[in-house]
Design a protein that fits this description.
Distance between the termini: 37 Å
Largest sheet: 7 strands, mixed
Number of strands: 9
Order of helices and strands: HHHEHEHEEHEEEHEE
Strand content: 25-35%
Number of helices: 7
Strand order of the largest sheet: 3-2-1-4-5-9-8
């Protein structure tokens, strides 16, 4: 499958808006119920979390940090990571492509909120399969997707912003093959700005 031309521009678009991202991005934390469920599924007072596509680390990473989590954030836009390091210096931030991570993990929780859907369908398949090596047994995975299979082009700063999604049944199949059980799936959740949200858990060790 050939990637849509807009898929190659996603990082550059986010790099260009990094300085104004916190003002652009809603800080009201309507995602809190999902974050609460995600945090509750992790053991211990200081669980480790990998935030894949972390942006500036706010508000989601900051919320989890306030709840005692130790965050490792990955984003391909250097300016986003610079902002995250300035805002949350006690945590670990890396400039890296989500599809080619440095040696990391495993973690007590995995987060990919509004980031996975910027990858092509084939890259999403590979990325989800790779979650298996990054998650400790029992670790929750929280991510958002589109509601159905297909590609969509939005806009940011007047540029085409790429999004893609797999079919929900395919997400379930790939997650199951990677060792994750779906705990909850809400298509176009009205309480989360219309995001289609998945909460899964890595199966415990046999």
């Amino acid at each position: 499958m050939t990637d849509h031309p807009a898929a190659a521009r996603v990082t550059a678009i986010y790099e260009a808006v990094a300085s104004s991202w916190d003002a652009r991005r809603a800080q009201t934390l309507f995602e809190r119920p999902w974050l609460d469920a995600f945090r509750a599924a992790m053991p211990g007072p200081v669980p480790s979390v990998l935030d894949r596509g972390c942006g500036t680390g706010r508000p989601l990473g900051a919320c989890l940090a306030d709840r005692g989590c130790c965050i490792t954030g990955i984003d391909a836009a250097p300016a986003m990571i610079a902002a995250a390091r300035a805002a949350l210096p006690a945590h670990d931030w890396h400039v890296a492509d989500m599809r080619a991570l440095p040696p990391l993990g495993p973690y007590d929780g995995l987060l990919a909120w509004h980031s996975l859907f910027h990858l092509s369908p084939d890259d999403q398949r590979a990325t989800i399969a790779g979650f298996a090596t990054l998650a400790k047994p029992g670790a929750p995975l929280l991510f958002s997707s589109g509601p159905e299979a297909g590609e969509a082009i939005g806009t940011m700063n007047g540029e085409p912003l790429y999004h893609a999604s797999l079919d929900p049944d395919e997400y379930r199949a790939i997650l199951a093959a990677a060792g994750f059980d779906v705990l909850r799936h809400v298509p176009e959740d009205p309480e989360s700005g219309g995001a289609t949200v998945w909460l899964a858990r890595r199966r415990p060790a046999a």
